Amino acid sequence: MNKKLPEKEIRMIILEALVIQTIRGKLGMSRKIVLYKDKSINMHAVQVANLSGYFTDAFDGLDLWDERNEALAKALKDQMKGLASVADVAYAKGEVQKSLNLFMNYLNELAYNDQEKAVSIIEAALCVVIAFYTRKIIDLKYQKGFGTGIIKLISAAVKEDGKRVLGTYEFQYGYKENGVIIWVNVDSVSKNSIILKGLKTGVQTYFRKRSSTSKSGMSKWCEPICTDVE
């Protein structure tokens, strides 16, 4: 006998499914200046050798990074001889850090574009793996209504420059005939949800939406979602 999951458990499953893990990297440099310098040099050497094959599209700043590594190494040697000050070393380290920061942008772009190999890419570069968890924005979702043949559709709110703005929402529902979805138009509305009534029950029903604003114009239809309407 099938047992229906409680509403709370269903919501938790949905929330967990909406969490996206993105693998990224960070430098993980030592606070000890000599170890910092050694790691930067080793990281540069890994990029030049490219034994992993991950860095064929090379980091543009390799030559400058090498020059800055050499300048830091020289400043440390000169400091031991009394020929360079703490400020001189700090300046040289700051220049290396500029290259490292740019390198991390390059490395994280590689990782982002190949999340399956992201951990290997980051570790091969002698960097530290970290993970970010973000909420996925659902373009369109549904809620089954009370009574038969009723569905509530909820669209993601339209935004411009990261801020919610007024817009128009168009929804459609449809049924497959010979493998093709035949869409039925629904009246446009000024809010991002609509309740549909009188839908067929016991068959797969498809839904999609698009939205428009005075600034951005009309969007494309979103990817269809579907469910059996009760």
- Percent helix: 25-40%
Number of helices: 5
Residue-averaged pLDDT = 88
Structural class: alpha+beta
Report the principal-axis shape.
elongated
Question: Which consecutive residue ranges, at least 5 long each, have pLDDT under 50?
Answer: 1-5, 7-17
Helix and strand topology:
Elements: H1 7-17, E1 19-26, H2 33-49, H3 62-80, H4 86-113, H5 118-124, E2 128-135, E3 140-144, E4 151-155, E5 159-160, E6 163-164, E7 168-177, E8 180-185, E9 193-196, E10 204-213, E11 217-218, E12 225-228
Antiparallel strand pairs: 1-2, 3-4, 4-9, 5-6, 7-8, 7-10, 10-11, 10-12
Helix pairs in contact: 2-3, 3-4, 4-5
Keywords:
single chain; 230 residues; alpha+beta; Immunoglobulin-like; 2 domains; five-stranded antiparallel beta sheet; 5 helices; elongated
Structure description:
It is a single chain. The chain has 230 residues and is an alpha+beta fold. The protein folds into two domains: 20-134; 140-228, Immunoglobulins (Immunoglobulin-like, Sandwich), CATH 2.60.40.10. The chain is built from five helices and twelve strands. Strands 7, 8, 10, 11 and 12 form a five-stranded antiparallel β-sheet that branches. Strands 3-4-9 form a three-stranded antiparallel β-sheet, with no helix packed on it. A two-stranded antiparallel ribbon has the order 1-2.
